[in-house]
Amino acid sequence: MTRAARRAAIAPLVLVFLASCSRDAAAQAGLESGRLEISAGAAWLGSQTFGSASATETTSSGGTFSLFNTSSEMGSAWAFDARVGVRLAGTLVVEADATFARPELRVTIANDVENAPSITAVERLQQYMIGGGATWYVPRRNRIVPFVTGGGGYLRQLHDRALLVETGTYYQVGGGILYLLSSHPGNRLKATGIRADVRAVILNGGASFDGGRHTAPAVTGSFFVRF
Amino acid sequence: MTGRWFGRAIAIATVLAIQAQPAFAYLEFGVTAGGTQVKLRWPQAAVRYLVTNASVTNVPVADFQAAIARAFASWEAVPTASITYQFGGLTAALPGRDDGLTTLGFQNRPDLDRVLAATSFVVDAATGALVESDIFFNSAFPWSVAPSGEANRFDLESIALHEIGHLSGLGHSALGETELRAGGGRLVTAAEAVMFPIAYAVGSIAGRTLKADDIAGISDLYPTGDATSVYGSLSGRVTKDGAPIFGAHVIAFDPVTKTVIGSFTLNAQGQFSIGAIPPGPRILRVEPLDDAEIDSFFDASRTVDINFRVAFSDRIVIVPRGGDSGEVAINVVAK
After folding, report:
1. Helices (H), chain A
2. Which CATH code, of 2.60.120.830, 2.30.42.10, 2.40.160.20, 3.30.450.20, is assigned to A3-48+79-105+123-226?
3. Pairwise CB contact (< 8 Å): A58 & B191
4. A191/chain B closest Cα distance in angstroms
5. What are residue A5's phi and psi, to 5 degrees?
């Protein structure tokens, strides 16, 4: 991910954080009530560029002769996201999270030596991200609570009909807001709400052609219940 | 006998000792033994060879033998292939004689004015196993064994590397580009297989290094114990307007390692197969066989379709570990 793209991904996160901090609504219990938080929702994972490569042959002087060029990327994709969090102390929550997506791996082929038309070859992956992290909610009594979050875990990407498995790791950092829909500190179900966050996700290894790290933005919206 | 041709030559694969034809892989010889098609290969792990005790201008016997040894060592160093070679000493015998000895040496054949070197075989007709294979280097051409090559001389190690590929059972690869010369013949623009039938120009030593295509070929013929579980294969079918075509050249590009490996459609169903390749994604490109003479690859009885446009598969093909990709269908259109 370029520096500009990374900046673009982080900017909305900062805006969300600042906007939510500036609100001053009626106090609500709920932020610190309940110990277990379960959430499920949808995420959008941004695309990652894997760079370009050329199919070449060797000339008699040891140089290269290009047959065609390729540029590769993992397309953006919708994902299912689930989390289970346990409040450790105050507003610090440790979480386990799992995300499933089916992004498209795309290779665009161009500049063929025999003028074959350009084409994009595709393949749909199954991508699993299973890991953990921590979320810190800004201490305030409000329906809208900003938070920052970070973590990482295991990346598993399955090619075509699970013919080949690629593994790696991921790390993520970001923040967002939590909006309390209901709060019943005396009940077993102590609170419900929705949560939205923006993250920078760094994938390391996996199906990446260069085996390197690639950063993509991610946006998640989920519904949560707290016990 | 199958030979290596120099830049001006029209490449052919002349077969004397056996009926050579590509097997169901990319670049291997096949023979019919006992009514069935088998791959031409050595039955034993170590192939013993002799070197003719005769020098030519600019190439003393010791240097000749050393260059040959380096070429054998290159093939032997392929980690996923089990074949080994053993130098049995110098001999007065000449290559090309049916004497049960695998012999490499010079012969002066000015009549073969486009043949730099050639490999011949003696095959057990019952089993299809190689019994003997000889290589002759045509001393009518100028040769070099200099480490950096020499202007106006052909690099002996490069040509030996190619011929030893034949000696081991490999046929020609079509991974190369040529251009027609005004005076006839072809000039190699580039190649990505030592087993490309036309040699680099004089002075070049670019042919001393095995490429992914060569490595896959020798690994498919002589896999090491764990190669079959670690490596995989891909297969598919090429059609033109729905009808299968024979002799289409299929290139598999690995975007991870940036290497290419070639194959052909080799039957009436238009099917191809590439074995012993590392798992991972591949981009498939299909092209007509137009960078060398068709009889460098197939015997004259086969009709090879070259009337179609280059095309790519629209899917990324996955080579699994220890398995096959499943059939990949590619359709091409006529020129």
Report:
1. 3-22
2. 2.40.160.20
3. yes
4. 47
5. -65, -40
